[in-house]
Amino acid sequence: MNPEQNGSLTNGHLALQYFTNRHQFTKQFAEYLNDSPPPTKILFFHGDGGNGKSLLLKFLREKYCKQFLPTIWQQLKTQSHDELTTAIEKVEQYTPIPTALLDFGHNEQSRDHFYSLLMLRRHLGIAAKKLKYKFKFPHYDFACVWYLHQSGKSKEEIKTLFPPEEMELIGVIMDALAQSFWANLIRSIISTLTKYSGLHLGLAWQQLGLDKHWVEQIKAMNPDKALINQLPHWFAQDLNAIMQTDNAPSRIVLFFDTHDAFWGHEHNLPQESFFYRDEWLRQLLSDLELSTGIMVVIAGREEPRWANSPKFMISQEKIETQLVWPLSEADALIYLQNADISETDLQQALIQYASVKPNQVHPFFLSLCADVVLAAKQRGTTLNALDFATIPEMNLKSKELTNRLLRYVDKEIEYAIHALSACRTFNRELYFTLGDALHFNATPPTFEIITQFSFVWHSQSEESENGYRIHDLLRRLYHQQRNVTKTEAHGILEQHYRKQEKVAEAIYHSYYQNPARGIEEWNEVFITADNLRNETLCRTLQKIRNELVF
């Protein structure tokens, strides 16, 4: 099977090529980007799992982060939803907008406010450099470097966490920390900011309180109890300042996906515990000045309950919620045609199979149906409408479609998919580790094929920007099944993470071999970490707990 020919229908370039409808959301997004003055609401897409929210965010980010001249935009805005979608793609004169995307469903680090802000910082820095903007975060950078320094991180470790273009500023801060040389620290920081961003911006930071008094305040804070909780505020403060400089972009867009991952399987938490999970995100959003051109787009299964939060409350008037519904039959037909499935009876059979209600076609089921047909075709088998005549119950469709798909792939790929379903996230290195341990033929070509299926999504973390994860619907399905390969993979992964001294990850895989053993170790490690005031480990364990059923 040729990886080039077996591109996933919901991931990568083919996903965006086959993306269907959602014209209403596209027009609303374009209005947020181009209307003047900038809208000051958070755009929040919600809906059932598999309805295409994540793909919608990727589509908007990659295809529609464009700002047009006012005269061009006024002409575009008068068009209907579907006409606007086509017209925007044809306009050649536009200004690209810097963006950053965080997916809270990747791993526990993507929900931890320290590492999430670092990732957001890196992604914005990369986007700004690409578009020749200069984003500087002196308050946030200093506080972050100070926290890492107090946590025992080396200069080399700290450098890896920041964009390369920030190394001079980060170097100034780290040199002062290493030598305890504070007298001229602020002067050096302001000098560096002025050098790269101009005198106006350098003076602006001084007016925003970047002075000796502020540095002394940071040094006096308890790193794990006070300082770390202020990082979202300083990040927002710096970003607000960036957007008010003369050479700033007129818009930036912050995308946040899988908001529901903060709670995992826990749906009935006490109010205090419930709102604590995403408290740092609410703090960040509360402190951002959207009127400066900062645009926030979030996706999750449920509408946010932030108006009821006791701390960092965000009123409902500040949120624009949009329900992402299943595809219509007409849109599903366009999707299949774009995927080169043209036989009429087969199209209708696939649409009926993937439907959850009349004229409501589940995008994830439809993409799996298309994957089955195309995988069979690659093996020389032509499927027809009769192959999809028997439709299982709703809760069995994922299982049935996945089993059908695996019939048309090599046994090595089938074996690898079962093993990788045990991973919370995986990359090429972990794939080969599992291949060696479980004795299946792990090769670069098979890895490319696996990562192009519709249920495999690209994932980024601090450890790797080239990671992947199996779709949550499929991972839950595999967890419910007693599969020997998956169980063996959990054992290998447990030992792998114990060697790397990543105890929380090890406990996760211990749990899925023996729930009682995993729960017992989680409790023991958490109590010990709490007694030793190891708040970093405590936070990691709490986030792992979201994916366990106590």
Word description of this protein:
With 550 residues, the chain is of the alpha/beta class. It folds into four domains: 22-132 and 249-325, Rossmann fold (3-Layer(aba) Sandwich), CATH 3.40.50; 134-231, no CATH class; 329-407; 411-545, no CATH class. It has helices at residues 12-18, 23-34, 53-63, 70-77, 81-90, 113-130, 138-150, 155-160, 167-179, 185-197, 199-207, 212-220, 223-243, 271-276, 279-287, 329-338, 344-354, 363-378, 397-407, 411-420, 428-438, 444-450, 472-480, 484-499, 503-511, 515-531, 535-545; strands at 42-46, 66-67, 95-96, 99-103, 252-257, 294-300, 319-323, 355-357, 360-361, 456-459, 467-470. Strand 10 and strand 11 form a beta hairpin. Helix 2 (23-34) packs across helix 5. Residues 1-17 have low confidence and may be disordered.
